[in-house]
Amino acid sequence: DVVMTQSPLSLPVTLGQPASISCRSSQSLVFTDGNTYLNWFQQRPGQSPRPLIYKVSNRDFGVPDRFSGSGSGTDFTLKISRVEAEDVGVYYCMQGAHWPPTFGQGTRLEIK
Amino acid sequence: QVLLVESGGGVVQPGTSLRLSCVASGFTFRSHALHWVRQAPGKGLEWVAVISYDEKYKSYADSVKGRFTISRDSSKNTLHLQMNRLRVDDTAVYSCVRDRGGCSGDCYGDFDLWGQGTLVTVSS
């Protein structure tokens, strides 16, 4: 299985400051159709995961533009330009290019 | 409103069975592959199973292969997960998840909608 490694696992951030989460895969996530299937999800406390980013850099419906995704091959990043209180939660990356789909361990974002 | 609503969770003893259901609404059910993903208490996310839009392709995590069966009923817009020979380590919130694609031919994973989940507790 493809191993997804996130860092850091804990991310204390001051309100209004930027935040960045790294996700590395053990294999390239480029699929046979040429797309790179790397997603990001946000899980707020007590809620189910919410899709944020798909295919590396595309924001899902309703996601604020302060969230952005980038990367290629095996190295990916989720950035929040200015952290707000509602951004508290756990962030997961997921790869869908190789079966089975696998998730990173999660990064817990908290407000300093 | 686009929704996935799971049901069927509960507290069961090891070795017994349980059937989960997920009712979809607000979108064309037949167009999407559907997955089950679980999350043990305080832990991360684990993919469990997938069924393609046309039911021709099914796949399972090694941890549940031979014990769990995924199925769908397009006449009722419903996804099921039949769980047999349950173990203590199957304890988790089970979520129904929609794929952006249909999983026809080569299958990739691209999750765009999650249900709220249903809790399954396996305990003696």
Can you describe what's shown?
The complex is a heterodimer of chains A (112) and B (124). Chain A is mostly beta strands. The model of chain A has no long low-confidence stretch (mean pLDDT 97). In chain A, the strands form two sheets. In chain A, strands 2, 4, 5, 6, 9, 10 and 11 form a seven-stranded mixed β-sheet that branches. In chain A, strands 1-3-8-7 form a four-stranded antiparallel β-sheet, with no helix packed on it. Chain A is globular and about 40 Å long. Helices cover 0% and strands 48% of the residues of chain A. Chain A is built from no helices and eleven strands. With 124 residues, chain B is mainly β. Helices cover 0% and strands 49% of the residues of chain B. In chain B, the strands form two sheets. In chain B, strands 2, 4, 5, 6, 9, 10 and 11 form a seven-stranded mixed β-sheet that branches. A four-stranded antiparallel β-sheet of chain B has the order 1-3-8-7, with no helix packed on it. The model of chain B has no long low-confidence stretch (mean pLDDT 96). At the A-B interface, strand 5, strand 9 and strand 10 of A face strand 5 and strand 10 of B.
